[in-house]
Model the fold of this input.
Amino acid sequence: GQQLNQSPQSMFIQEGEDVSMNCTSSSIFNTWLWYKQDPGEGPVLLIALYKAGELTSNGRLTAQFGITRKDSFLNISASIPSDVGIYFCAGPGTASKLTFGTGTRLQVTL
Amino acid sequence: DGGITQSPKYLFRKEGQNVTLSCEQNLNHDAMYWYRQDPGQGLRLIYYSQIVNDFQKGDIAEGYSVSREKKESFPLTVTSAQKNPTAFYLCASSPGLAVFFGPGTRLTVL
Done:
């Protein structure tokens, strides 16, 4: 099935650092979603984007809908240990189903 | 509280046995989904249902079966035909495009 490409695949950062990750698609999307999965849990929706160029924040998280509509970016400022997890982007796939990215695994060290 | 419940959290079965994973939602969502996640991997769609008494195969349906007799329930049976059943199974429901996940069931086949 179709997949979105996320990068980086994994990140090891120190507490307090800022984090940037991105997601690219070969198709134009009209919606981008970002999820976070804590270890051993189901993913939780963080941010939804509906318009090219849109910038949306949720606490220390900021996501942007790329102008080309083929990419999206997620930034985390001043990371803390509970930011550890896997971050997935998602967008509309075929038959009204979501297509998920491959995930970015974030590790935060003290 | 509204949400999606999956039970049990951990499940152990002997090779060759069928096993059914439970998923219930009280969000009044029409659509429900089953995903499989392997260690360090993304989310792969097994089956989905957009309405009661109807369901469709996802990307990796072989060795799995589902039913959707009630709006609230979407059980997944992992049959003995599934060659590598050990994985983390996530149920989700959706009112539209964004999906909302349950806590997951970790199935280990010994």
In short: The two ends of chain B are 35 Å apart (CA to CA). Residues 24 and 73 of chain B are 5 Å apart (CA to CA). Chain B has no helices and eleven strands.
